[in-house]
Amino acid sequence: MERGIYFDAWFRDQYCYHPSLPIRSMQMLEDLELYHGTVLVWAGMGGGSISLPYLEHEAFGPVDPRMQIYGFMNDSEFVAECNKRGIKLFGIVFEVQGWEYPAVFDDEGHLVKMNLRAEEDENAGWYGLREFSADSRPDAFPTSLKDYYPDGIRDEEGRLVTDLWEECCTRDRFGEPIHAQWVEVKDHRETCYQMCRNNPVWRGYLKKIIELQIDAGVPGIQLDECELPMTSINSGGCFCRSCMKQFNSRLKERKKEGRLGSEWDGIDLDSFHYGEYLKAHGCSYPENAPFFRDYWEFQVWQVRRYFSELADHARAYALEKYGRKLLVSGNFYNMQPAYYPIENKVDIVITEMEHTLFRQPYYYRYCAGFARGKTVIIAENPYGGIVPELLGRLDRGRGYDLYRIYLLEASVYGCNMSVPYGSWMGNTIKDAFWAPKWLTAQIQDFLYEHDECFPRSASKGAAVLYSYGSYYWRDSNKGSGANGMQDAYESLLDVTASEWLDPDLKPVPFWDVIRALSERNAQYDVVMLPDGELREDDFSAECIRDYPLIVVPDCHVLTEKQQNILLEYARGGGRLLVAGRIADGTSLREELEKIGNAVFVPAEGAKEAYMPGFMKAFAEMYDGIAPVLCDCADVGVARYDKDGTAYIHLLNYRYDEAADRVQTIAQLELTVRDASDREACVLAPEGIEPAGMEISKKGDDLQIRLTDLGLYAVICLK
Fold it and tell me: Does the model's pTM come out above 0.90?
């Protein structure tokens, strides 16, 4: 199992100033080894969105002797030290961010003050993408525009570009640039525009950032905001020249294929401009905007197209210049549907959660299914969740058990929660997320020493199908974005532990089902079904072959291939529980009814109306095959099997607010299927007392009684 570190390393009691991360040191390396870190995310060399010379300085620039005394080094030196230790540092490419900072220069044009030190200086000017692309500050750093663009920056028609900021920013339908509000620190002069990857000039610039990071030795790159420019949609974008031109081309292709809806009848696509159309008709955007689904799907297509272009370029550059393979990842923010078409382009799936909550096993199981066996590294999000409150508790010497659960829960359900190492606290909190070192080390020691307890293996329970064609539009999470994150954070400043519930309950059957199954401690895996267009259909019979039960939650769109696989599964004796629709407009339901191995229940209206019937049917089909049974609502359970050993993970959520600790459960009983010939032991991290255990056999099953179960335990049945 990879052990991720959320390695911003921003300073305590200071704002988190994107995009440049603090200078790295030998002490950090000691901490990374203490935490047994193997992957560093958001980890280094982010300054390319200020300028390439700034990035070059981050990577290779000299370090002041005063800093060297304390072990500080430039980023390429730090990468080399990480590589020696087998720690994979992913260079961070802040794709959406385009920065301008207040700056002061000496008489020779050298940069002498920037940001905080320049803000109050009456002689301050600016330094960022504008100055770099105009070559107006060629002596700010040892390198300048001509070192990267000898003939200047050119657009796709060969015209000279002298202002990257204005050329490549996202725009609303009125032509105004859109700010990246979530990273601009409030009440400061620094300014950040959202940039558009559909613009070939910006893609060319991003490639140069990537090349510099590879030159600095990174074993991997992480493309942040990798849904670019969809980031801008909830802020009113993107209606830049490139987006409008490419949207028109896409519309014409679909019209030629006969795939445009009748609502487009009478519209001249040669002259159509989506932004002008919305203005002329007085339309809102994005809510209730005409043609918005067509536009959203176009942008998902562009995400796949241009993320792939950058990933392919990065791998080819590393191989051709250095003869080495490069790892690629991104920020799959909250595992939104727009990322599924590019999952097969990454080596590791990294996701920043939209809401970091106290208890969310369903989310981690979904992430594990989304990644299809790849490593999933989770990063917290300070907006809309427990993190600000948790940080405050830790600073006051409280919340230790909550932090233990925070680190352990993802691993229990098939992912890895990255250790917060000075991680991001947004643009309004003057602090970074630092947790007690000893407490973090306790959990990380356990994960390292008992890595075998966390195999990425199938659950042997049920498979819950996520049909991308059925859900990508309903589940597109249109309420997120820069403004949405800020509003969510401001409304949750005073959250208490008893209110740490999910504020984003998606009212769709898939999410209703997996939440209910998690509450029941059912063992299940999420299995993804591609739509065959935005994501090629690589679903196969092997994906579900070993599951005794398939749950089909309102999968009203299935490809012909998927229908045939489900039919063959049923003919082979597999059982299906269908909640709601299945492959509308086909005969699949009738054919399954003839076979007789499927149960159908409704899934319309509020979940309170249909979930009792679904759960009754599920219990009747599942209980006889359940890999492990536990009826304690305060305990989360996960079972994994590998090489003849079963691992039963038990996470105790019975947190007492007044006592500020997880309450011990005096007695807990489990039934473990097909395990009667196993030897058993109980493991727990340092700081958590191991539970007592009594075992009896009942046929091929084990009856296990645990006494005094603390916060967490794993039962190993060898």
Answer: yes
